[in-house]
Amino acid sequence: MDKQIFNLKNDIEVLYKRNKNTPRVALCFNLSLNDPVPNPGDYTLMTRLFMQGTKNRSAEQLSEELDRYAIEFSSELKLDYLKLKFVCLNEDFDKALEIFEDIIKNSTFEDFEKEKIKLSGEIQAQLDSPRARVVDNFYRNLYTNHHYGYTNTVISENLPNVTRDDVLKGYNTFMHNSRKVIAFVGDLDFEEVQDKLNIHFGDLPSSIDELPAIKPPILKEAKTVEIIKPDANQAHIIQGWLVETASQNDYPVLALMNIILGASGLSSRLFLELRDKKGLAYVVRSSYDVARLCANFSIYIATEPKNIEVSLKGFQEEIDKIKNILVSEEDLENAKNNLIGKWAFSQEDNNQQAATYAHYAITGLGFDFNERAKEKIKAVTPEQIQECANKYFNDRYVVSIIKP
C-alpha cells in the first residue's frame, strides 16, 4: 500500500506515504501545545534554540553536518503545536534521523542569552514594517488574554522575564505531556521506515491520547485600535471576526466565502470593487485563518490615509451584498474549483504533503482531513453562504489601523 497509518511502541501515531520516484524524503514531527500555556516568549525561545547545539554537537558542527548532507531542518512554533521537520535525500535518511534524534533528545539550550538578544532585535526589525505592525495589533486585540494573542509585541515586552529554566520547563512539558504525531512522505520501503522510526523515537515519552483542554478565545465587543507611525506612507487596515474552525460544520462554507470575497486574486469581489472600480487599494484581500480552538475571518487593505473611512465603508458594502444577495451557482462553482486547486497546488511535493498531514493530525482532525473536506466543499450551496455571512459578520469585530 502507498499509504499506511501505524503507531510506534510509545503510541506516537505515524502516517507513511510512499511517493515513488521522488529523490527526497520529508518527515514532520508535531507535538501538541499544552495547558497551562507559559509566559509569552518561553516556547518561542525554546523553538529557536533547537539549532544551537546538542550534547554531541556544537551549533557550528550541527550546521556544518546538515549542510554537508544537504539536510533541511526546521523548528517552528505554531499556535497549537511545536513542529519539527527535516527533508533529505533518500540515501541520507539514516544520517538525517540520527541528527534529528540528537536535536530532539539532546539539545542543550545553552546559547540562551545570545539567542534572546538576537530574537529581540529581529522582532524590532519586523515590527518596523507597517504591514507586520497592523497584523500584530490585530491579533493582539482579537485574542486578548489568550495565548493566540502572544504576538511579537507581547513577546518583546515579556522577553526580559524569560529564563533558561523557563525554556527547559517548556521543553520537558512538550516531551512528557503532549500528543505526538509523525508524517513521513517519500520513496522508501514501509518496513524500513517503521523499524527506523521505532529505533530512533520509540523510546520518547508516550504520546497522550487526548489533546489538552484549552479554552478558546472570546470576543465580547467591537474594538477599533489605531497606531500612528509617522514614517508610514500609506494606511493599513484589518477588520476581522471570530468564526468557526475546521472541526466544525461551517468550515467548508467559510473557506468558500473567503475565496469569493477576497482570496481568489484578480477575480475576488473585494479586488474588483475596491481596487479596480473605486481605485482605493494598493492591496486588498480577505483571509480565513484557522487554528484548533477557533478561527478568524478578516479583510485587509493598504490604501492612502485619506481613504480609511471610505475603505471601511467599502468592506461593509461587500459584506452587506453577500449577506443579502445569493451567490450565483457559477460564482460558487468557480470558488470550489479555485479552492480545491489551491489545495492541490500547496501539496505538490513530499515536504508540503508531510507538513499538511501532520498539521491536520496534531489538531485532532485526522491525517485524511483534506480528502474528507473536499467532499464537503463540493456540497456547499448558495443558501449556506448567505446564512454563514449573516451568522458571522456581526457587531463583534476588531478593526486594526496603522497610519501616518
Architecture overview:
- With 404 residues, the protein is of the alpha+beta class.
- The chain contains 15 helices and 11 strands.
- It has helices spanning 42-48, 59-68, 93-106, 112-126, 130-142, 152-158, 164-176, 190-201, 251-263, 269-277, 308-324, 329-345, 350-362, 369-378, 382-392; strands at 3-7, 13-18, 24-32, 72-77, 81-89, 180-186, 223-228, 235-243, 281-290, 295-303, 398-403.
- A 6-stranded mixed sheet has the order 1-2-6-3-5-4, with helices on both faces. A 5-stranded mixed sheet has the order 7-11-8-10-9, sandwiched between helices.
- α12 runs antiparallel to α14 (369-378).
- The longest helix is centred in the last third of the chain and has 17 residues, at 308-324.
- It starts with a strand and ends with a strand.
- The model has no long low-confidence stretch (mean pLDDT 95).
Please give the structural blueprint:
Layout: E1 3-7, E2 13-18, E3 24-32, H1 42-48, H2 59-68, E4 72-77, E5 81-89, H3 93-106, H4 112-126, H5 130-142, H6 152-158, H7 164-176, E6 180-186, H8 190-201, E7 223-228, E8 235-243, H9 251-263, H10 269-277, E9 281-290, E10 295-303, H11 308-324, H12 329-345, H13 350-362, H14 369-378, H15 382-392, E11 398-403
Parallel strand pairs: 2-6, 7-11
Antiparallel strand pairs: 1-2, 3-5, 3-6, 4-5, 8-10, 8-11, 9-10
Helix pairs in contact: 1-7, 3-8, 9-12, 9-14, 9-15, 10-11, 11-15, 12-14
